[in-house]
TrEMBL record:
Involved in the biosynthesis of isopentenyl diphosphate (IPP) and dimethylallyl diphosphate (DMAPP), two major building blocks of isoprenoid compounds. Catalyzes the conversion of 4-diphosphocytidyl-2-C-methyl-D-erythritol 2-phosphate (CDP-ME2P) to 2-C-methyl-D-erythritol 2,4-cyclodiphosphate (ME-CPP) with a corresponding release of cytidine 5-monophosphate (CMP). The keyword Secreted does not apply. It is an enzyme of class 4 (lyase). Belongs to the IspF family. This is 2-C-methyl-D-erythritol 2,4-cyclodiphosphate synthase. The record marks 36, 135 as: Transition state stabilizer. 4-CDP-2-C-methyl-D-erythritol 2-phosphate binds at residues 10-12, 36-37, 58-60, 134-137, 141, 144. Homotrimer. The lineage of its organism: Bacteria, Pseudomonadati, Pseudomonadota, Gammaproteobacteria, Lysobacterales.
Amino acid sequence: MSIRIGLGYDVHAFGDGDHVMLGGVRVAHDRGVLAHSDGDVVLHALCDAMLGALALGDIGRHFPPSDPRWKDADSRAFVRHCADLLRERGWKLGNADVTVVCERPKVGPHADAMRRLIAQDTGVEVDAVSVKATTSETLGFTGRGEGIAAQAACLLVRDAP
Ligand SMILES: Nc1ccn([C@@H]2O[C@H](COP(=O)(O)O)[C@@H](O)[C@H]2O)c(=O)n1
Ligand SMILES: C[C@@]1(CO)OP(=O)(O)OP(=O)(O)OC[C@H]1O
């Protein structure tokens, strides 16, 4: 059996709006995010973790921000594409763990809904997907409420070498 690990990180600045997309879930908020796509930091970090584990570059290489096809795109499509890439190579997502960093909105009440969507889009059981959150105790850009960040780690497993 072979294993691979991958790490991902994403940030989006807050802008005008009334919601943020997080893990595919529309979370009501008094700000939106500035982004080319729907700006879902959870799913972008997860994509980068999966692509990193495969050594296939990053999300911007697969979905260039200069490409109008990805304007306002649903980031769940990016996750499904990355999941296809790993399956094509014989890998399966073993587990994924995501941390969202922001003072607000509160992520906890939405975490299980995010886990369910990610599990659905990557073809794994819900208990293989973790979504959690922390504030940065008012420090830094997240602490000042200027933006939102997410980190992701994933493990890939494959029977073959
Ligand atoms: N945006 C957030 C931030 C935090 N949480 C939850 O609150 C707990 C305490 O956060 P600290 O930064 O003070 O450690 C954290 O463990 C999360 O459960 C949240 O839901 N959404
Ligand atoms: C997702 C893409 C899609 O064009 O654009 P953004 O929504 O701006 O998000 P980012 O995290 O900067 O990743 C780059 C792009 O791949």
